[in-house]
Amino acid sequence: RIRYLSLTLSTSALTSVDVITPLANAPECKPPRLEGLRFRQTEFWRPSEEKRIVNAEVYVFSKFRSDHLSQIYFDGVMIPRDHYTVASLTHLAIPLTSANLTPEELESTFCGCVHLVSLSLDLQKVRTFTTKTTLSIPLPKLRRLSMKGNSQILSLIYVSLAAPLVEQVNLETEYSHSDPVGLFLPSQPVGCLRITVDEPNIRLNFTE
User: Fold this and answer.
1) Which of 12, 57, 108, 125 is deepest in the core (most CB within 10 A)?
2) 8-state DSSP, 148
3) How far apart are CA 181 and CA 130, in angstroms?
4) How many CB atoms are located within 10 Å of the residue 98 CB?
5) Residues 58, 23: contact at Cβ < 8 Å?
């Protein structure tokens, strides 16, 4: 049976009746019980088209959604959190698209993600993230963390995640010589930890 699916669509394909109509007219088609899904959207679109594009992405995703999914990778695709379950997820890659990200949004995104071992976040659209209290979002099984975006935002997200077992952190920043690289360093590394920032520019390895 089909266990993993990689789906790539352009913006024009997402909104094309030639693509959507056959899906809508095939309710008798039973989708596979997927364990992994990679959904990629390949083109940029105007902000005025956002609602239309997101609705189309959600519609396509709903045709392949499965309660058995353990791996979800969204690349350029914005599927709202309430359209997929996270209880069984071990691998997750998503964009966070709020320009002014709030602690409540971050917490709700990862609520229940207790089995994640790999997390990839695209934070390139986030411009501000402020919190008056110390966040500690539990990700007890996380081993690998990848983040992309403004270095200051990444550092704030990084310290908000309680991931005691993390072994590898990959950061892709909007590089400058004033980047606060020190904010990514743990005060007391536990076990083995490898951190890369804009690889191959900076590589840090902590070993027991």
Assistant:
1) 57
2) E
3) 19
4) 14
5) no
- pLDDT tens readout for residues 46-70: 666 777 778 888 888 888 888 889 9
Q: What is the b/e burial string over 111-147, where b = at least 16 CB atoms within 10 angstroms of the residue's CB?
A: eebebbbbbbbbbbebeebeeeeeeebebebbebbbb
A 10 A CB-CB count for 173 gives: 22
Rounded CA-CA distance 190/178 in Å is 27
Q: How, if at all, do strands 71-75 and 36-41 pair?
A: parallel
Structure tokens at 193: 């930890």
Strands (E), the chain: 4-9, 36-41, 71-75, 91-95, 100-101, 118-122, 128-129, 137-138, 144-149, 161-162, 168-173, 193-197, 202-206
First to last CA, the chain: 43
pTM: 0.84
The CA distance from 65 to 62, in Å, is: 5
Of 106, 177, 207, 206, the closest CA to residue 147 belongs to 106
